[in-house]
Amino acid sequence: MANYTVADIQALRERTGAGMLDVKKALDEADGNIDAAVDILRVKGLKGVAKREGRSASEGLVITHIADIDGGQAGTLIELNSETDFVAKNDKFIALAGDVLAAVVAAGAADAEAALAAPIEDTTVGAYIDAAAGTLGEKIVLRRVARIEAPVVSEYLHRTNKDLPAQVGVLVGSDAKAAEVARDIAMHIAAYSPIYLVREDASEETIANERRVAEETAKAEGKPEAALPKIVEGRLNGYFKENTLVDQAFAKDPKTTVGKVIEATGGQVTAFARFRVGA
């Protein structure tokens, strides 16, 4: 088996605009060499590969779907990218996003790799996108996919430009009690872009790195050695207050926190996902 990773597959897809299966076959043939795989894709004459290579797809849209499942709901959020905002607002591109989302939902895909391999009509989502890219004349990339299951899933889509489709999308998973504030929390997430739901979601590696940065910064500022532990803990606490959803000051009432807003309902928020196009 050729020596390559999922990251190599994604890098080659972004570089060439080729479909998932074509990329894997090319990497197999090239024994994992990405440059050689690019040449293989070109030689095979895949539509638009050479023309779209190296282009950046940083425009586009986000779109969501929520469906009832056993025990609750499942929400799916995707980000589909184009090269220009002109294509992003094109009816064909918007329709493509709808088709892709429907296929991703039907497959129950929870990440981009699974989504690209999902069936649609007589092909895969990856190949379907590539064919559409040839028609639209731009590199089109399914960048991200998120799936949340919870008793209730709420959504919020935000247009940063009234002439374009939604650029920010949020899903919030909660129980029935917290659902009464879930949309407000989704709007908060869209604006404040938290990284974690609770502090425990941060990895040990992230915490260690934040401690290191805080300590090195304090030393560079000339803080006394004896005060460093307290300073480091204070700055780590500040990091979590800025990046943890339940610790953030609530957008609609900064005198309280999102955590306290949830607590007042007697319910729980269990998960969230947030995409901003190109970010």
TrEMBL record:
<dbReference type="InterPro" id="IPR009060">
    <property type="entry name" value="UBA-like_sf"/>
</dbReference>
<protein>
    <recommendedName>
        <fullName>Elongation factor Ts</fullName>
    </recommendedName>
</protein>
<dbReference type="InterPro" id="IPR014039">
    <property type="entry name" value="Transl_elong_EFTs/EF1B_dimer"/>
</dbReference>
<keyword id="KW-0648">Protein biosynthesis</keyword>
<comment type="similarity">
    <text>Belongs to the EF-Ts family.</text>
</comment>
<dbReference type="InterPro" id="IPR001816">
    <property type="entry name" value="Transl_elong_EFTs/EF1B"/>
</dbReference>
<feature type="region of interest" description="Involved in Mg(2+) ion dislocation from EF-Tu">
    <location>
        <begin position="84"/>
        <end position="87"/>
    </location>
</feature>
<feature type="domain" description="Translation elongation factor EFTs/EF1B dimerisation">
    <location>
        <begin position="75"/>
        <end position="278"/>
    </location>
</feature>
<dbReference type="InterPro" id="IPR036402">
    <property type="entry name" value="EF-Ts_dimer_sf"/>
</dbReference>
<comment type="function">
    <text>Associates with the EF-Tu.GDP complex and induces the exchange of GDP to GTP. It remains bound to the aminoacyl-tRNA.EF-Tu.GTP complex up to the GTP hydrolysis stage on the ribosome.</text>
</comment>
<dbReference type="InterPro" id="IPR018101">
    <property type="entry name" value="Transl_elong_Ts_CS"/>
</dbReference>
<dbReference type="GO" id="GO:0005737">
    <property type="term" value="C:cytoplasm"/>
</dbReference>
<keyword id="KW-0963">Cytoplasm</keyword>
<dbReference type="GO" id="GO:0003746">
    <property type="term" value="F:translation elongation factor activity"/>
</dbReference>
<keyword id="KW-0251">Elongation factor</keyword>
<dbReference type="Pfam" id="PF00889">
    <property type="entry name" value="EF_TS"/>
</dbReference>
